[in-house]
Amino acid sequence: MNKIILILITLISSCTTSVKTEEIKNEQKTQEKFKLAKSDYTILTYTPKWHWTFNNVKPSQLQESELIEIEEVLKSAIQKHNQTQKNQLIEHNKNNSDDPITQTNYEVQLQGYMRQYVPVINNKGQKEVFINFFCDATDEKNWQTQLVQVEDGGNCYYSVKISMETKKYYEFEVNYSL
Q: What angle do CA 88, 90, 92 make, to 5 degrees?
């Protein structure tokens, strides 16, 4: 009788472990989903009138898995950009001790911005994405259909391009004030 109870306890505990393992796997799958609210971003179809973004390209689409990949590249790009800004601030203050600055005004974040994604296929057949970030859409009524353009604006506006083939970013630009 004791052997039967021991076997039952072993079976029950192994089932519980299996259920917990499945719960963990499901939680990991949930975390792999693109988490930005649909109201905070749009995917625009490239048009040649946006010539400053790309030349000699064709419009493309984005899948959720690509949006997730882009997030990882963006995290790295922003971290590197902000570190560069901090280093420049330190250097400025070292060289201008009589006129120190307390913040760079050009550091950016991943959260708190509206986004416009413009996916294209370049002339080598590789997918690239232009991503336009801006703080607020209240002044931009057509932001979900028209690319937002501004002059200056500080760190409220920035953009970056990402190669989906290499998972590298380039042309990371903050709209510096003049």
A: 65
Q: How far apart are CA 144 and CA 137, in angstroms?
A: 9
Cα 71 to Cα 31: distance, rounded to the nearest angstrom: 13
pLDDT digits (tens, 9 = 90+) for 110-127: 998 999 999 999 999 999
Rounded to two decimals, what is the model's pTM? 0.77
C-alpha distances in Å from residue 86, one per residue of 38, 77, 111, 136, 146: 32, 14, 19, 25, 33
Q: What are phi and psi of 148, to 5 degrees?
A: -75, 130
Region of 105 please: left (phi>0), alpha (psi -120 to 50) or beta. Answer: left
Query: Residue 113's closest CA among 133, 142, 140?
Result: 133
**What type of residue sits at position 51?**
H
- How does DSSP classify residue 36? S
Tokens of 56: 């000699």
Under the banding of pLDDT at 50, 70 and 90, the label for residue 128 is very high
Residue where the block lists tokens 């083939």: 165
Kindly list the domain boundaries of the chain, sorted by start residue.
Answer: 1-32, 38-175
